[in-house]
Design brief:
75% of the residues lie in helices and 0% in strands. The chain has 92 residues and is mainly α. Helix 1 runs antiparallel to helix 2 (25-42), helix 2 runs antiparallel to helix 3 and helix 3 (45-61) runs antiparallel to helix 4. It is globular and about 40 Å long.
Length: 92
C-alpha cells in the first residue's frame, strides 16, 4: 500500500498512556482501534507496527490471548516487510 502520511506516534502513546494511568481499559481499546485505523488508512506500516505492539500489551492485560497473538503475528510480518523494503538497512 502506498503511504499517504504518518500517524503522530507521540500523540498516540501519550493518549494511550493517559488511558492506562486512569486504568480506563475501554478508552485504551478505543484509542488503539482509532490509531490502528489511521495507520492502515495512511499506509503507515511503521506507525501500524507501533500501534500493534501496544495492542499486544493491551490484549495481554485484558486476557485476550487470541487477539494478542494475532496482533503479534501481524507485527512480525510488518517487521519482515519493513526490513525488506528498506533493502536490508535493518537486517538482523
Amino acid at each position: 500500500m502506498e503511504q499517504r502520511g504518518q500517524i503522530d506516534i507521540a500523540r498516540f502513546i501519550g493518549r494511550l498512556d493517559a488511558c492506562f494511568n486512569r486504568n480506563d481499559m475501554r478508552w485504551a481499546r478505543e484509542c488503539i482501534e482509532y490509531w490502528e485505523n489511521e495507520a492502515r488508512q495512511n499506509g503507515d506500516d511503521r506507525g501500524l507496527l507501533t500501534v500493534l505492539n501496544e495492542a499486544v500489551g493491551y490484549y495481554r492485560r485484558s486476557k485476550k490471548k487470541t487477539k494478542a497473538l494475532s496482533a503479534m503475528e501481524e507485527s512480525l510480518s510488518l517487521v519482515k516487510t519493513t526490513m525488506i523494503s528498506t533493502k536490508g538497512r535493518y537486517a538482523l
